[in-house]
Each structure stands twice: as C-alpha cells, then as structure tokens.
C-alpha cells in the first residue's frame, strides 16, 4: 500500500528556493516572464498557507514536486493560488493531495469558502475536487483564459 506523500510549508531557505522555483518553472517561465514574477506580496503575509511536496524529504538539495498556497481573503473566505505540479509528476495524484492539505489548513483557520481563478486547462481538475465554475474571469499574459471557481468547505 503506498502512503500519502507529506505536504507541509517550506522550512529552510533551500526549501523556499525549491518552492518558488517550481512555481516559476510551471507558471511563469513558459510565458517568458521574468524571475521574481512568481512572487506576490501575499506570500509574506502571516495568514498565508504555503504547501510544499518534496521529491525526497531527506536531502540537502530539496526538489519540489508540487506546490500551492492559500491566501485568506476575508469574511471566512480564502483563495487558492499558484498551484503547480512538476510536469514529470503530473497526473499522479499530487495536485489532489496539495489541495486537500490547503483545504484542511483553511478549515482549521475558520475558512468556510474557497475561491480560485483556474486556468482553462485545469478547470476539470478542480471540478473533480468539488469546485464549481462561477464565471469566466481574466485573461493572463493575453492568452490564458481563467475561470472563477468556488467550493464551500
Ligand atoms: C493542474 C494541476 C495542478 C493538476 O495536478 P495533478 O497532480 O496533475 O492532478 P492529480 O493527478 O491530482 O489529478 C486529480 C484528478 O484530476 C484529473 N486531472 C488533473 N489534471 C487534469 C486536467 N488538466 N484536465 C482534466 N483532468 C485533470 C486527474 O485525472 C485526476 O482525476 P481522477 O481522480 O479521476 O483520476 C497540474 O497538472 C499542473 O500543475 N498543471 C500545470 C499548471 C496549472 O495549470 N496550474 C493550475 C493553475 S490554476
């Protein structure tokens, strides 16, 4: 029986670097966005929840396989942002595990509703996890259509 991989916040500077590196590689680099564009001020706010799933827990050079974050947005609501799974690990259930971690942490923080802006290609993924499309939202980098989605916890 395979065990559920560990998801937790980054702890060391090397883990934080691995965390942001995967975000950049999956969500920014393919659209020629500059290094640093993968970070937002909310990353450093105290209520923000960061989720990191490492390839190997016992290593000095950590490699991230999956990441995600949840930003409290007020009125018992949170927003899932920057979900990214390494291409070689996609489709193996890691994204589901990261979202489950963020939802559990959100519940523990008293959050009762999660919203997110999903890329069109990821809408089906979120639907499988119980999220429903509310409406089309923004167009990122002039080409990636997003959809506002919502789930009650
Ligand atoms: C979208 C993403 C986060 C999904 O993570 P993942 O680890 O590949 O997904 P999982 O393996 O946990 O899949 C969970 C379920 O969703 C399905 N699924 C995952 N990605 C899907 C997709 N793009 N389209 C349709 N179904 C998808 C899986 O088949 C699985 O279904 P099952 O339970 O019936 O087997 C990941 O593929 C990714 O990082 N993609 C590129 C970046 C991106 O689009 N991020 C989201 C920005 S909003």
Automatic annotation (TrEMBL):
Transferase as UniProt keyword: yes
Positions of the N-acetyltransferase domain: 5-153
Keywords: Acyltransferase, Transferase
InterPro entries for this protein: Acyl_CoA_acyltransferase, Bact_Acetyltransf, GNAT_dom
PROSITE patterns assigned: GNAT
A Pfam family the protein falls into: Acetyltransf_1
The protein, known as: GNAT family N-acetyltransferase
Species whose genome carries this gene: Hymenobacter mellowenesis
């Amino acid at each position: 029986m395979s065990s559920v991989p560990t998801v937790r916040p980054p702890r060391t500077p090397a883990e934080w670097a691995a965390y942001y590196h995967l975000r950049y590689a999956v969500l920014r680099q393919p659209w020629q966005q500059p290094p640093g564009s993968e970070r937002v001020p909310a990353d450093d706010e105290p209520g923000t929840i960061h989720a990191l799933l490492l390839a190997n827990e016992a290593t000095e050079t950590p490699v991230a396989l999956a990441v995600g974050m949840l930003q409290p947005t007020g009125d018992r609501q949170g927003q899932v942002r920057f979900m990214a799974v390494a291409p070689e690990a996609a489709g193996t259930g890691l994204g589901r595990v990261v979202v489950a971690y963020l939802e559990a942490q959100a519940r523990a923080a008293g959050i009762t509703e999660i919203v997110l802006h999903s890329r069109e290609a990821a809408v089906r993924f979120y639907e499988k996890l119980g999220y429903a499309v509310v409406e089309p939202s923004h167009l990122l980098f002039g080409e990636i259509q997003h959809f506002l989605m919502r789930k009650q916890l």
